[in-house]
Each structure stands twice: as structure tokens, then as C-alpha cells.
Amino acid sequence: MKKVFSFLLFVVIYSHGLSAQDYTKLTVDTVVKRMVDQLLLYPQEKIHVQVDRSAYLPGDTVWLKAYLVHAAFHIPSNQSRYVYIELINPLDSLTNRIKLRPDKENMFYGYIPLPMELPDEIRSGIYFLHDG
């Protein structure tokens, strides 16, 4: 019993300094550096789309303007070469897709013409613009 107690005491005393992970204190500089590294390695963009009206009728044209900004800093971004805008119908299926290229000021302009006569497969209702 004395040998077991001595062994357990030895293990407790000398295993205190052992650990599987390095526990270092995080400083503000370390956190900022890691965040900057994350932003540089995996840049993200947000797209903002503006349309000329809030409601449309058959035969109208949806005029739109889109611009990209950096997701964290909200400054203009020029990383993407194209923007895809999709028109989604009430049944959640794709009705129309356009591909826009930026102009010299890094703005994306385009339009989606709506058909004058609605075919049977196209319903009236709430449609969504989806940026891809």
C-alpha cells in the first residue's frame, strides 16, 4: 500500500507541469493579428442591389444597380468580376438570370425585362431578386 501511495504522490507532483495544450494568454495584439490574417486569407464581399420601383406589372422592365463592398469595412470592393442577379418566382424556381460586369467606377448596371403576356407556368405574386 505504501508503494501505491508513493507512486500516486509522485504522479500527482510531477504531472502538474504536463499538459496536452499550450495555454498562452491572448493579448489584444494577437487577436487583432489573427483577425487581419483571417480577412486577408478569406476576403468576403457584400452586394447591395437597388431597383427603380417596388412593384412591377407585366411588360415592365426592372432596372437595377448593384455595387460590391468589403464585408467588414464597407468600402468598395473590386475582387469580383461579375455579379449574377436572379429573378425567383413564388414557386421558388428560377425565372430569369442576368450576368453583370462592372463599369469603370466598379458599379453594376442592368435590367430584367418582364414578359407582356404571362404564360401559364408564370404566376402573378411576389417575386424575389437573388444575388448570386
From TrEMBL:
This is Macroglobulin domain-containing protein. The lineage of its organism: unclassified sequences, metagenomes, organismal metagenomes.
